[in-house]
Amino acid sequence: MLLPKSWLEKYVNINISTREMADKITATGSHVESIEKRVGDIAGVVIGKITKIEKHPDADKLVVCQIDIGGENKQIVTGATNVYEGAYVPVALDGAKLADGTVINNGKLRGVESQGMMCSLEEMGFPISVIPKASRDGIHLLPEGTELGSDFIEVLELDKEVIELEITPNRPDCLSVIGMALETAASIGEEFSQPEIKVEENSDKSLEEIFEGLEVETELSPRFYLRGLTDVKIGPSPQWLQNDLMAAGVRPINNIVDLTNYVMLEYGQPLHAYDLEHLGDKKIIVRQAKEGEVLTTLDNNERKLRTEDIIIADGKEPIGLAGIMGGLDSEVTDETTTVILEGANFDEGQIRKTSKHFALRTEASTRFEKGLDPEKSKLAVDRVCELAVEIGAAKVAKGSIDHYPNPVKVETLESDPKRINALLGTDLSIEEMKKILDSLHIFTEIKGEMLESKIPTFRRDITIWQDLAEEVGRIFGFHNIVPQPLAGSLTRGGKPFFRTVEEEARNVLLATGFDEFMTYSFMGPSAFDKIRTPEDSPLRDAVKLINPLGEEYSIMRTTLMPNMLDVFAKNMSYKNPSAYGFEFGNIFSVELNEEGLPSESKKLAIGFYGKEDFYFLKEVIELICHRLGMRDVVFHTLNGNPLLHDGRSAEVFYGEENLGFFGELSPMIAKDLGIKKRLYLAELNFSKMVEFYNDEVKFEALVKYPAIERDLAFVVPRKLPAGDLIEGIKSVDQSLLESVEVFDVYSGDQVGEGMKSIALKLRFRHKERTLKEEEVAPIVEKAIETVEKQFDAKLRAI
Fold first, then answer.
1. Beta strands 579-592 and 515-516: pairing type?
2. Fold of the CATH domain 497-691
3. By C-alpha distance, which of 683, 716, 724, 708 is closest to 779?
4. Of 278, 238, 276, which Cα lies nearest the Cα of 254?
């Protein structure tokens, strides 16, 4: 926001330097970004009046002007096309300096003497965006009656700095000169003087005579206030008005439009002026748009409206996008004679949505979307009417229309000065606190030992006593608060249980050579296609974001695999020879938890490519489970998972609970993503693993008695997992059977096509005595019989 000091001084007496004032404003919460000095090296430019224009004798495109600069005449030759006899113009005299450093000297143009130069605003350093159209392509024309010979810098108040401010979203009241004047007065300890608005209804006509009426059909407009201007005389605004607008970064257009812009900047309340002759049926209807309606806005763009958009319409069609931009057909023009002035209030949430949908951000929408005080609607319209009469731009019709069914109430908030001092670390008296709050127009009374404050309607950010404490603290100056030693009792903190378990698993992964990844919790719907997720898969039922950063981040992830794939694909594209990584991350479900929010669960994703293979990943998972106290995890063949390679993937079980899956990436997905190396992935349900965590460690003495070993080899179908064979043997008798291990797998001509030989080592041991052969033999025979029967296996000689 740009805040001209010359405008600010109309409401606050400033007796300190601009830099000192800016420091105080920043210290109280309104951050000053910069202080712009507008003069530069401009000097020697005065105001003159063209008294006579003659054609140049030797140049068709030049004219010779006689200019009165206050009792002295100057002759200046110019090629400007917008000059005329009687025009008031800035004149750079001999030796004058312009904004770009150019020095003006007397000379001759095509043989005719020229004693200086008439200037444009661009030559005086003004940006193109604020130069009035009438002066954009030629000499700047000043209002009639400007004092001749006066300094151009003083006339346009260029000696006054402009302060650029950063306003926080919770303070829309500060997006106005009045709001910042109040803040400035409180910050520097001066009185704030607000204009007393008096509307002179000096027209012979009433609003009822010229206007058919107002209809408000939506609850999204809590207030809508109208007044009428008659006998409108469209023309340029007075110089003081143009000065303030240009300093604030707004281009002057004409007196009526300039007044609405001026008051919008002054009070922070956007306004709109309608040409009555262009209002169908001479009425205004505030409603929500009908599907398919089209509006051409002031920027000459045609916009297709939606039913949720709030619009302003006349008796026939839409004429404005409420709170954002007016329509092209009802704007004020040079032929306008009667104006309807609007000061309204709209639902900030809907204004924000509509502004975003149309990618249309204006001075009005910037203010409305933050939430405005409905009380300002009437105040701002009446201010325009007062100024319109003052500058002779129009007369005010008698009466007004005010749709305000639910007026906002002034809330009262009680606070305890002792608690405020305790919170701030100050020792302020109750009278000092009252003075500070009163200076912010939070008018406060002392009731015994308590403060009772009336919260102004423009301070919607104040709802609790701590907010009042903040107001006291910032105006007193946080830098003035003497640091105090910390007081209070200490408590011992600790990690949540699941963090402790996570740390255990992380240590295993780091020790085995993995690095930790961190990816976004967002993903896009296309990620499911990337991993070939079936259309009916529950993974596709994801939580959608209301305000996403983009399509690629529009839903909450239901699996960690797409993000892991992206990381490894990027590593391969960077020519990294190997990559090993893991991530602990939450996934999100559309099922709601007890708090009515999408439920979350933690997953552990592991992946790598490099020298190791499938069995390395299996071993890492076993190590993690063992560290977490799950020593009896088993693995079952997994087929039909589109993410993984059939025959090179498995599921992890602990008892009856499925903990997840792991395996080699499907060749089809690898081809789609340009992954040319074998990539191994795992996704485990870490929330379940936390539930099964067991840190109890039992120690047993080493058995001193020898073991008896028996080696058995079985010919079985090639697709039979060795784990099934082991489980079958263990089911016979585990009282003496200590372990079963695979030590050889063979497939070839000797065992037949489609078959394989699995050689197993069975180890038997008794903890309290030496085993005898006759004790082991029956168990071995039973194991052979069980395997042959259960798996259609045949015992093979070793």
1. parallel
2. BirA Bifunctional Protein; domain 2 (3.30.930)
3. 708
4. 238
Q: Whole-angstrom Cα distance, residue 122 to residue 614?
A: 73
Cα radius of gyration rounded to whole Å, the chain: 41
φ, ψ of residue 515 in degrees (nearest 5): -110, 155
Check whether domain 207-403 has CATH 3.50.40.10, yes or no: yes
- Rounded to the nearest 5 degrees, what angle is found at the Cα of 304, between the Cα atoms of 299 and 307? 125
CB 578, CB 610: distance < 8 Å: yes
Which tokens in the block code for residue 58? 């030797």
Counting Cα atoms < 13 Å in the Cβ hemisphere of 86 gives: 1
Token representation of residue 629: 């106290």
For residue 721, the model assigns a pLDDT of 85
Give the integer Cα–Cα distance in Å for 281 and 472.
Answer: 53
With 80 as the cut, is the pLDDT of residue 791 above it? yes
Q: Give the model confidence (pLDDT) of 65-90 as tens digits.
A: 999 999 899 999 999 988 999 999 99
What CATH number has the domain spanning 708-796? 3.30.70.380
Please say whether the dihedral angle defined by the alpha carbons of residues 202, 206, 211 and 213, taken in this order, is positive or negative. Answer: positive
How far is residue 339's CA from residue 276's CA, in Å, rounded to a whole number? 5
Could you give the angle at the alpha carbon of 266 between the alpha carbons of 326 and 393, nearest 5°?
A: 65
| Residue count of the chain | 798
Domain 43-155 superfamily per CATH: Nucleic acid-binding proteins (2.40.50.140)
Full-model pTM? 0.66
Distance CA 382, CA 199 (A): 6
With bands split at pLDDT 50, 70 and 90, how would you rate the model's confidence at 494? confident
Same fold for the domain at 2-38+163-188 and the one at 414-480? yes
Distance CA(777)–CA(383), nearest Å, equals: 108
pLDDT digits (tens, 9 = 90+) for 574-612: 999 999 999 999 999 988 888 888 899 999 999 999 999
668, amino acid identity = M
d(CA 256, CA 564): 61
Helices (H) and strands (E) in the chain, counts: 22, 38
Residue given tokens 């970004």 in the structure block: 33
Q: Are strands 450-455 and 515-516 parallel, antiparallel or unpaired?
A: unpaired
Counting Cα atoms < 13 Å in the Cβ hemisphere of 783 gives 27
- Would you kindly state where each structural domain of the chain is located, as residue ranges? 2-38+163-188, 43-155, 207-403, 414-480, 497-691, 708-796
